[in-house]
Structures are given as structure tokens and as C-alpha cells.
Amino acid sequence: xxxxxxxxxxxxxxxxxxxxxxxxxxxxxxxxxxxxxxxxxxxxxxxxxxxxxxxxxxxxxxxxxxxxxxxxxxxxxxxxxxxxxxxxxxxxxxxxxxxxxxxxxxxxxxxxxxxxxxxxxxxxxxxxxxxxxxxxxxxxxxxxxxxxxxxxxxxxxxxxxxxxxxxxxxxxxxxxxxxxxxxxxxxxxxxxxxxxxxxxxxxxxxxxxxxxxxxxxx
Length: 218
Known about the structure:
- The protein is an alpha/beta fold.
- It is about 35% helix and about 20% strand.
- The chain has a five-stranded parallel β-sheet with strand order 2-1-3-4-5, with helices on both faces. A three-stranded antiparallel β-sheet has the order 6-7-8, with no helix packed on it. Strands 9-11-10 form a three-stranded antiparallel β-sheet.
- α2 packs parallel to α3 (about 65-75).
- The two termini are about 25 Å apart.
């Protein structure tokens, strides 16, 4: 469950101490109280796995593990499916932005940044992460996230926890590519099994060659 306002859990992974302090002050001033930070990518990933935050503010150039690799690692973990990522970096080249978004970032903010603009993006990304599948009919598919159940044309789908989480992620963010981490074959297996169980509905799931998968907007 993604939280808004003071209850949102935000983690900052940034190696510049001045920027970390500025981000913490801006977030505290906006009412976000559950904030922690790390200066290293590898330590930041351990923090994220432990805390399961709602949002990560993530630099790209980090010691230990770069931001692109960290974002891919987050997206590969089922328990972090609801975690949103905003990349915050001085790298402004189009290929860097594409790499950031393909790694799984929800937004990409370049430095230097305006505090008000950043906070607006934080709010927007957190809101985007709220469950958006409840009670909605996606061409015969209905998902109940709280009960972790899905039906297709009224019939219950027998999904494993991993398959259910993947289906939620794909449908909730339909139209956007879910990036499969390099050398991560588990996702390919789950998608193949999902397609079998979804029958004709599986036509909604597109393979984006060399990147991952996407559910077409219904």
C-alpha cells in the first residue's frame, strides 16, 4: 500500500551530503516525516530492502552500485512492486534519461532542481503509485489487490504470488514498459505462465524486444 502525506515512507540515496540535506529539509517542510538516506548505492539497496519505502529519490552516479543498477534491482523484487522511484541527477543527455526510465524509474529530475517542482513531482509519483486496479474491469479482468485475487470474465484465476504481483504491476501501469532486469529469466517464465492462464486476454501483453513487457491500454 502506497501512502501519501506525512505517512509516506521516503528514502534518499545520494552521495552529495549538501543535496541530501536539502532534500531532507524540503521533504520535512512539506510534511513528510518518515525519511532516511544513504550515501552509497549498495548500502542504499540494503536500506530499501529492509524498509520497503513508498518512494526512492535516487542519484545515478553512486559508489557501490549506480542508480540504474539499483533501480533494476528494485524492479526485480516482488515485495518492492509498489515502490516508486524518482531519479535525481545531473546527467541530462537523452540516452541517460532513456536509460533511467528503462531501468524502472517513474520520473527523472535533473539537477539543479527547483524545490517546489520537485515536491510536486514527489506528490504526483506517490499518487500514481496508489492502487488503481480496484473494482475496474479491464476487458473482463478484475483485480482485488487487498484480497490478492483476480477473476477473468467472472472465473477465478489460479495465480502464484509472483504471477499475481506481476499482473498487478503490468495492469496498474498499462501502456508503460515493465523492464526485465538483465539475465533475470524468472520474469520471462512468469509471463509465459500468465499468458497460458489468461487465454485470449494474454493478447494484451506485449513483448518489448530486448527490454521487457507491457500491457496495452484497455
